[in-house]
Amino acid sequence: MGQQSKPAAESGTRESERRRTILRAAIDVFARKGYHGCRIADVAKEAGVAYGLVYHYFKNKDELLETVFDTGWSGFVTRVRAVVEGEGPLAEKVRGIVEVAFEAYRVDPRAVKVLILEIARSPAGSRINRQTAFVDAIRLSSALFNAAQERGELRPGLDPHLASALLFGNIEMALTAFVVGLADARDPDALERAKSQIADSFLYGVLTGAQAAETSEWKPEKSATKSKAPKRS
Amino acid sequence: MGQQSKPAAESGTRESERRRTILRAAIDVFARKGYHGCRIADVAKEAGVAYGLVYHYFKNKDELLETVFDTGWSGFVTRVRAVVEGEGPLAEKVRGIVEVAFEAYRVDPRAVKVLILEIARSPAGSRINRQTAFVDAIRLSSALFNAAQERGELRPGLDPHLASALLFGNIEMALTAFVVGLADARDPDALERAKSQIADSFLYGVLTGAQAAETSEWKPEKSATKSKAPKRS
DNA sequence: CCGCTGGTTGACTGGCGAATCACCCGCCGG
DNA sequence: CCGGCGGGTGATTCGCCAGTCAACCAGCGG
């Protein structure tokens, strides 16, 4: 997160128009052809600027991607933080997080596409895993689950960290479905339905009320294995 | 999915020792440095063979990756299919699927790493999205959820396709946590715990029994939106 | 003993694309 | 009017790496 190596970066909004143009172009091109599948020339052409200018604003191709990630994620993480730190029961907050993610997708599907598809695919050696950004969000909300567990809202014995990961796993996979065209993103209802279904099934499970109640004691005896330790938390 | 372009391929096991050595090496190297981050020379060195030999067995780098995917996924999909087509209640099958995924990880973490991390996106234009393989598994198990819904085991109104996607989203994210070292994979208990927690929280949700029962009627009034259409199924 | 066949080798090349650099141009301050 | 400065240009350079190929070396059948 955000070591601005740019010297005269200063205030956030102060960055030149051009720089932002290039950034947008980069997002578009990455979304279309993937990071490795495009050359800087493509970005430049898309932005309508000269090849060299890209290097005026960004140290190299890598930093360009880095920046795309940082800006994209920081917005997302900020919003997630707001939800997490707000008031309300766990269920409400979970819905809030899902909402944030889907809203981001509604506003700028392409950016989300890049963020999701290009995760973890950092040019091998270079920099920290972009995964980090995602991990931030997960860690953030795992605090939420931790607190909820202490308040007794979350099933005891469930690792808050894992729960958090699962939530984002749900979100990511659902968005991926839209991103790759498995689900129809032009149907606004589909988005809405997916949203509530994600939150609901995460909170209450996928089984019918009857079935779930049956085992609701949370001791699914068939559940195998040596789960005894309550886990450090 | 298996168009064997190799001419004298014949029976599956009949492939030369060397070919398999190279494949294994490729998996190792891909896992370590990623597809784009490694050169063919690395694979050859890892396999202990000459550079050129790789090209004797594989048309090009792309086909190498392709093959890694196909072999990896086909095994996985086959096992998932077995579970799906077996007998038993939904809950049992879900546990079965989770089991399959984690077993694959236990047996060969590196292969799983490649399969997960390198999903989707190889040189943009080339071939069909590897996503396909994953999608296969999802589609397969969505039949399962469909049937379950008709038997009344699955919450009505939940899109079976989405449910399936969510399950794999859970699995993938959990495995990713291990793959990237977020969770400690050397602790065998951690694997076990994660396994049962995934299945359980997917089936019964994350809320405590009390809370869940409260809303168990499956009409979370706050759940917003215009969900009326039962959806085609 | 010869020559053929098919797996095996690794130096070599061709192209591609990231990054550089010499140069432009409009503006401002002196 | 001059000089210098910072945004802006794009042809050129340069290293890298996928993919080729000529030569090599069993083994084997004649």
UniProtKB/TrEMBL annotation, chains A, B:
Keyword field: DNA-binding, Transcription, Transcription regulation
Listed PROSITE patterns: HTH_TETR_2
Keyword Transcription: yes
Pfam families referenced in this protein's UniProt entry, alphabetically: TetR_C_4, TetR_N
Domain of life per record: Bacteria
KW Cytoplasm (keyword) present: no
InterPro entries from the UniProt entry: Homeodomain-like_sf (IPR009057), HTH-type_TetR-like_transc_reg (IPR050109), HTH_TetR (IPR001647), Tet_transcr_reg_TetR-rel_C_sf (IPR036271), Tscrpt_reg_YsiA_C (IPR013570)
Molecular-function GO terms, alphabetical: DNA-binding transcription factor activity; transcription cis-regulatory region binding
Domain HTH tetR-type: 16-76
Disordered: region residues: 212-233
DNA-binding region (UniProt annotation): 39-58
Name of the protein this chain belongs to: TetR/AcrR family transcriptional regulator
Species the sequence originates in: Myxococcus xanthus
